[in-house]
């Protein structure tokens, strides 16, 4: 999930990131069970309010089973009897499952913000809390392990350029998501609301950009200390 993908990564860095993403996926499953239980037993919501939980329980699980069968990886991993290649593949498969959940939760959360004006909006935002919690865990662990880094100056420059472009696109999207109801009125486009969308994009984009830059710098400092030790 790193932005630095223009060159092959160091295998140690890739393995550590996959390991952390694998743990993030398991954390997401635990939080999803809690979310499902709260919705089911406390609020007794309608079926469509469980779509995020159902997706996380089913689609990534099917993906994991298929990937393991195709790569001849045991469905139940016993680390003591498996070689490093099998363990690495297992981490990679679970990491990919986590990224699938991340993309879905992001899309579903955006759908909720744009289209769901029901009384259950706050309850549905539990899905976004699942995403934010696991992403925060993933980010903190990657930064603290010193693996949120590039492998070369060339990769760093290309990665940062891609990161800036992605931040701009993401900021505009978030500005639209939070202000779309001001952009369209009675089926017509309200151009006067465009500055509001730009302001929303800036309020989201600048903090995100500088926070990520700080994470990258922190991770590189930790990586340098690990090398010097």
What can you see in these coordinates?
The chain is mainly alpha-helical. 76% of the residues lie in helices and 2% in strands. The chain has helices at residues 11-43, 51-70, 84-115, 121-124, 126-144, 153-183, 194-228; strands at 184-185, 188-189. It has a two-stranded antiparallel ribbon. Helix 1 (11-43) runs antiparallel to helix 5 and helix 3 runs antiparallel to helix 5 (126-144). It is flat, with a radius of gyration of 20 Å.
Order of helices and strands: HHHHHHEEH
Low-confidence stretches: 3-8
Main pleated sheet: 2 strands, antiparallel
Evaluate the radius of gyration. Answer: 20 Å
> Tally of extended strands?
2
Please tell me what the overall shape is. flat
- How far apart the termini lie comes to 27 Å
Helix content: over 70%
Summing up helix and strand content along with how strands pair, one would put the structural category as: mainly alpha
Q: How are the strands of the biggest sheet laid out side by side? A: 1-2
Summarize this structure as a short list of keywords or feature phrases.
76% helix, 7 helices, 229 residues, disordered N terminus, 2 strands, two-stranded antiparallel sheet, flat, mainly alpha
In summary, what is this structure?
The chain has 229 residues and is mainly α. The chain contains seven helices and two strands.
Give a topology summary:
Layout: H1 11-43, H2 51-70, H3 84-115, H4 121-124, H5 126-144, H6 153-183, E1 184-185, E2 188-189, H7 194-228
Antiparallel strand pairs: 1-2
Helix pairs in contact: 1-3, 1-5, 2-3, 3-5, 5-7, 6-7
């Amino acid at each position: 999930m790193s932005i630095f993908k223009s060159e092959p990564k160091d295998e140690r860095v890739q393995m550590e990131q996959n390991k952390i993403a694998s743990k993030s996926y398991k954390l997401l499953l635990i939080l999803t069970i809690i979310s499902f239980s709260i919705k089911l037993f406390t609020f007794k919501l309608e079926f469509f309010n469980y779509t995020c939980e159902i997706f996380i329980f089913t689609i990534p699980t099917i993906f994991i089973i298929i990937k393991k069968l195709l790569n001849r990886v045991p469905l139940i991993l016993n680390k003591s009897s498996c070689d490093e290649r099998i363990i690495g593949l297992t981490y990679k498969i679970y990491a990919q499952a986590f990224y699938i959940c991340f993309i879905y939760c992001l899309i579903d959360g955006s759908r909720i913000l744009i289209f769901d004006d029901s009384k259950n909006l706050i309850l549905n935002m539990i899905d976004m809390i699942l995403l934010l919690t696991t992403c925060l865990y993933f980010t903190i662990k990657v930064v603290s392990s010193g693996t949120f880094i590039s492998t070369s100056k060339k990769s760093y420059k290309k990665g940062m350029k891609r990161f800036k472009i992605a931040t701009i696109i993401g900021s505009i999207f978030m500005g639209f998501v939070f202000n779309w109801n001001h952009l369209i009125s009675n089926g017509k486009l309200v151009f006067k609301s465009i500055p509001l969308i730009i302001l929303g994009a800036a309020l989201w984009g600048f903090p995100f950009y500088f926070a990520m830059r700080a994470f990258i710098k922190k991770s590189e400092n930790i990586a340098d200390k690990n090398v010097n030790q």
